[in-house]
Specification:
It holds the Pfam family AAA_5. This is 5-methylcytosine-specific restriction enzyme B. One of its GO terms (molecular function) is ATP hydrolysis activity. Its EC number is 3.1.21.-. This protein is an alpha/beta fold and about 725 residues long. About 45% of the residues lie in helices and about 10% in strands. Helix 27 (about 640-660) runs antiparallel to helix 29 (about 710-720) and helix 28 (about 685-705) runs antiparallel to helix 29 (about 710-720).
């Protein structure tokens, strides 16, 4: 296969370079042509200048118009549009594999804001001499090339992207040394050790002499036929495939770890919700104007490199302490960098702040984290679609940190959002629609070890009674089942329609419904969790809402519910049944689409039983250990671990003993959830012994505190089952 027949893009790219050369002395004609092309395509010309329409342009940036973060189809459409307007005859298919791309946030070869006189002219000079040197290599053309190359490297915005641009215009003559290809070339078995050692020692863009030596040494290796790639385009394509595979494996591994942790709790690991952030663009917001014009947000600390290189937060911490030892513990900075790279996501909302009492703008995150070596003091970047800019003083002491998540601070969030309610921009309509994953009754039955008949009974009770309490011994999966029950009835994991609170001895009516709280002006009336949730449900009466109360019997229920005792009854719901609230004197009702799921641990002897006034308003559902369920038995079979099965059998025997004990009973049996969420590789002797020694035996000591002999007997039996 010839080099021209394997890929279509090199011929197209090279012919385009020849056509562009004619515009070296007539760039206004080139700009006009580009404007016409984009108008014909029905697309907006990307921002290439801080003033809007560019006043000048270089040829490498023209390539960047279709070698950036676009789909392959759109890249082809733009490239063919430009090529067609310039008279390019070579075909171009969707075979961009290995063609390096610029970051959308940095898609020009000159600094859009602080461009110096002569920057674009020097880029044209390099372009012209690079073509001449590639087509006819002589001492003279090499000398001119080296001079032009080194001159461009002195410019503010020039870095590894220069080697990328050279590769675009003559892909068989120049090697691309952007981060992906450097990483690949440094891998074992990808290049001889002599080449790898040179690449590993490079910390910044090489000058012309070193670049040409690297190029020639790699080209010599490619021509030897030792490797699967025999040209620079083939090398770049291979590097792309390998890196994509590595990235997929890492992403899958990270996602699996996250899901194991989160799914064991509330089952929301696969639900993407909008998060809200406060962000300071440099000291005193000094970078705000530039970041706003470029459509980005950035963080400093560039000396520690690409943040995705740190698999764990502790790794990032160690590097920060080593790199900036004079800055102390740097707890906030480390947390900000970790969240910026790993937790922030497209669709999140960012509020820009200056100091601790002023809001400057609002935007929606539009891109993933990228490390831009050419980004100067702020190489850690994300694209942001800024929707508002201005100055809004806020009567609140904002956090001093560079990046702060405020999703869980609804009062602060509400105050900030009011600044943008009357904005000319239709911000609300621009916010991404959150698509929640579907969740069926079948999925519930697969995850919660319960029979279909039992599930149908619980759903029926919740629909008719409106309020249920899931009660049972520790470890039967009350919390695990509660949210999943709500999701299964909704048919979707819509977290916006589910609210979880936990009662405790200090929880009050003021927390639950409304109450006065201290403020700067004295006291203000603040609405509680249940009041706010009911108002939200009332505005969406066609959908079901679920209010989940953990440890419902830990609170003083008469004080918490107050006058709402009557309103939560199924036949007292809706606007026709209103009562006046204690503080605001507002007439309030509980919507018919609000369902309450309480959870109660029957083995906690420190808690009093619920009073009868509340009991008659709830249906009580007993959740029992599910060791004998089909689902749990399938789970055991999948682990294929004899010691695990022996321990489970012993726990079943223990539960029979507990159930027959007059001082305990079935409400004290040990639940199955102590043994869930294991995999064959994690179900080890050590993990099982840990469950026995640190979870089960301490519970037995509490159950039989006055019968130490029985505790010793069962402790020995549980431990022996693992031998």
């Amino acid at each position: 296969m010839t080099r021209d027949s394997q890929y279509s893009w090199p011929r197209f790219f090279m012919e385009l370079a020849d056509k562009l050369l004619a515009f070296k002395e007539d760039r206004q004609a080139l700009i006009a042509t580009l404007q016409h092309v984009y108008a014909e395509l029905g697309m907006d010309l990307p921002t290439l200048d801080s003033g809007g329409i560019p006043t000048d342009i270089d040829p490498f940036t023209v390539y960047g118009l279709f070698n950036r973060g676009l789909t392959d189809n759109k890249r082809r459409v733009v490239a063919l549009g430009i090529g067609g307007a310039l008279g390019v005859q070579a075909p171009l298919h969707d075979d961009f594999v290995g063609v390096p791309v610029l970051l959308n946030i940095n898609a020009t070869f000159y600094d859009q804001v602080r461009r110096d006189d002569g920057d674009i002219e020097r880029l044209w000079d390099l372009f012209a001499v690079a073509l001449a040197y590639a087509d006819q290599s002589t001492e003279q053309t090499e000398a001119v090339f080296r001079h032009a190359y080194d001159a461009v490297l002195q410019q503010r915005h020039a870095s590894w992207n220069v080697t990328m641009g050279l590769f675009w215009i003559r892909p068989y003559a120049y090697v691309n040394l952007s981060s992906r290809d450097r990483w690949f070339l440094a891998l074992p078995d990808r290049m001889p050790s002599s080449v790898r050692s040179v690449l590993a020692s490079i910390k910044k863009v090489p000058g012309s002499a070193e670049y040409l030596r690297i190029r020639d040494s790699i080209l010599s290796v490619l021509k030897s036929g030792t490797y699967k790639y025999a040209s620079f385009p083939e090398l770049s394509a291979y590097a792309w495939r390998v890196s994509e595979q590595v990235n997929r494996e890492k992403k899958d591994s990270d996602k699996e770890k996250e899901e194991v942790t989160q799914e064991a709790a509330l089952g929301d690991a696969d639900v993407e919700t909008v998060r809200y952030w406060l962000y300071a663009p440099g000291r005193g917001a000094c970078m705000w104007d530039e970041f706003y014009s470029r459509g980005i947000m950035g963080l400093a600390w560039g000396e520690i490199g690409d943040l995705t290189a740190y698999a764990h937060k502790e790794d990032l911490k160690a590097q920060m302490l080593q790199t900036y030892p004079e800055n102390g513990t740097q707890k906030n900075d480390i947390h900000a960098l970790w969240q910026f790279a790993n937790e922030m996501k497209p669709g999140d909302v960012v509020f820009v702040k200056k100091g601790r009492s002023e809001i400057l703008g609002r935007g929606i995150v539009a891109g993933d984290y990228v490390y831009d070596p050419e980004g100067g003091h702020y190489p850690n970047c994300r694209e942001v679609r800024w929707t508002s800019a201005g100055n809004w003083p806020i009567d609140e002491r904002l956090a001093m940190k560079t990046l702060t998540e405020i999703t869980d601070y609804p009062e602060l969030l509400s105050r900030i959002e009011t600044f943008f309610e009357d904005s000319d921009d239709d911000v609300e309509s621009e916010e991404p629609l959150v698509i929640f994953p579907e969740y069926s009754a079948g999925q519930f039955l697969n995850e919660v070890y319960m029979s279909e008949e039992r599930y149908d009974v619980i759903v029926g009770l919740l629909k008719t009674k409106k309020n249920i309490i899931l009660q049972g011994a520790p470890g039967v999966g009350k919390t695990y089942a509660a949210k999943r029950l709500a999701y299964s009835m909704m048919g979707v994991k819509d977290v916006s329609r589910v609210k979880l609170v936990q009662f405790h001895q200090s929880y009050s009516y003021e927390d639950f419904i409304e109450g006065y709280r201290p403020s700067g002006a004295g006291f203000e009336l603040v609405k509680g969790a249940f009041y706010s949730f009911c108002k939200k449900a009332a505005d969406d009466e066609e959908n079901d809402y679920f209010f989940i109360i953990d440890e419902i019997n830990r609170g003083n229920l008469s004080k918490i519910f107050g006058e709402l005792f009557m309103l939560i009854e199924s036949d007292k719901r809706g606007p026709k049944n209103k009562l006046q609230l204690l503080y605001s004197r507002e007439l309030f009702s509980v919507p018919a689409n609000v369902h309450i799921i309480g959870m109660m641990n029957t083995a906690d002897r420190s808690l009093a039983m619920l009073d009868y006034a509340l009991r008659r308003r709830f249906a009580f559902v007993e959740l029992c250990p599910a060791f004998d369920s089909d689902g749990f038995r399938d789970y055991c079979s999948g682990l294929d671990n004899p010691r695990f099965e022996a321990l489970v059998r012993e726990v079943e025997s223990l539960n029979r003993e507990i159930a027959e004990d007059e001082s305990l009973g079935e409400g004290f049996c040990i639940g199955h959830s102590y043994f869930c969420n294991m995999k064959p590789e994690t179900c080890t002797d050590a993990s099982l012994a840990s469950i026995v020694d640190y979870e089960l035996i301490p519970m037995l000591k509490e159950y039989w505190f006055d019968e130490p002999g029985k505790v010793r007997e069962w402790s020995d039996r549980l431990r022996r089952s693992l031998r």
